[in-house]
Design goal:
Length: 142
């Protein structure tokens, strides 16, 4: 069974929306988004997940890239969308990340606007989408 995940590039004022993570002694950024729920389109998923993880409302999801990873019985498809910023300021909404932070004070999730320059130099997960994310950032701001 293939798991499907929808992630988003959102740009505002020459900054990209990312989720800053501190976990297991590591610090990195992750592309906001998450798993598709049963009966949900990837476009609906990315809009819902962005609001849950960042409190940012987005619209007009436009598919940029589809990446499939297969390893034995495991299969996952990532879909990377470009979404229009609609409204909101970054803050963690009611999400699994917030619950994880409550259970473990050593874990931090913080949505933030990151300058394109910093985003291009930073470690970004998921690794399967990192290069596509950065390539599209360069195209979008040039």
């Amino acid at each position: 069974m293939t798991k499907e995940s929808a992630k988003a590039i959102v740009i505002k004022d020459n900054c990209a929306l990312l989720l800053y993570v501190e976990e297991d002694g590591k610090k990195f950024y992750t592309i906001p988004g998450g798993k598709c729920e049963q009966g949900e389109t990837p476009e609906d998923t990315v809009v819902r997940e962005l609001f849950e993880e960042t409190s940012i409302r987005v619209g007009n999801p436009n598919l940029l890239k589809k990446v499939k990873i297969e390893d034995g019985d495991y299969s996952k498809t990532f879909k990377l969308f470009l979404c229009d910023y609609v409204s909101g300021e970054p803050s963690l909404g009611d999400s699994p990340e917030k619950e994880k932070m409550k259970r473990n004070p050593g874990i931090l999730y913080r949505p933030e606007w990151v300058s394109i320059e910093v985003a291009l130099k930073s470690e970004i997960t998921p690794k399967a989408l990192s290069s596509h994310f950065k390539e599209n950032l360069v195209k979008l701001v040039s």
